[in-house]
Specification:
Shape: globular
Number of helices: 3
Order of helices and strands: HHEEEEEEEEHEEE
Largest sheet: 11 strands, mixed
Radius of gyration: 19 Å
Structural class: alpha+beta
Number of strands: 11
Length: 173
């Protein structure tokens, strides 16, 4: 039996590298990004095709929440959101721009999103819930909605990855 040729092995290696490259930026952000807490509101808890999840409306995704005049946001275009943590560590909206702001103030963090349907979306608005935790999460959200936070990691390029929900004194991963 003939051994596989170098070309075949190279083709297989290339395909494996391409497959690994797809989740690599998100994994890198998750490992190396800065942890930020964002205020949020739950939106929808169940989809028959995807199972139990929690859609989130992030406070920093609402252009009306920004104290500064915002640049002209356009549907489907990039939006750069500047936030700054308050005394409790929760990131508060500072500014939204259509080009990446450089430099930003001390302690400020830049999030990269896309303006869609009147909101800025970061790709971190859906949290999948383990079936055995969905009841506890729903109860905690009812009781502690004011203390509900999305825990995200933000990479140097502004990429946002949702890592957990903090509700009251509980953390859901």
């Amino acid at each position: 039996m003939e051994r596989p040729g170098k070309a075949l092995l190279a083709a297989i290696a290339l395909q494996l590298l391409l497959l690994a490259a797809i989740p690599a930026p998100l994994a890198w952000t998750r490992w190396t990004g800065e942890t930020v807490l964002l205020e949020m509101q739950p939106v929808d808890p169940f989809d028959a095709m995807r199972g139990w999840y929690q859609d989130l409306a992030l406070e920093v995704g609402d252009p009306a929440r920004f104290p500064e005049e915002s640049d002209e946001l356009r549907e489907g275009r990039r939006a750069w959101v500047v936030v700054a943590p308050d005394a409790a560590g929760v990131a508060r909206p500072v500014a939204v721009r259509t080009t990446r702001p450089e430099p930003v103030g001390a302690g400020e963090i830049v999030l990269r999103g896309t303006y869609r349907g009147g909101r800025i979306r970061f790709g971190a608005e859906t949290f999948f819930v383990a079936e055995n935790e969905r009841g506890a999460l729903a109860d905690d959200l009812r009781e502690h909605l004011r203390d509900a936070r999305a825990e995200v990691r933000v990479g140097s390029a502004g990429r946002v990855v949702l890592t957990a929900l903090r509700v009251g004194d509980r953390r859901y991963e």
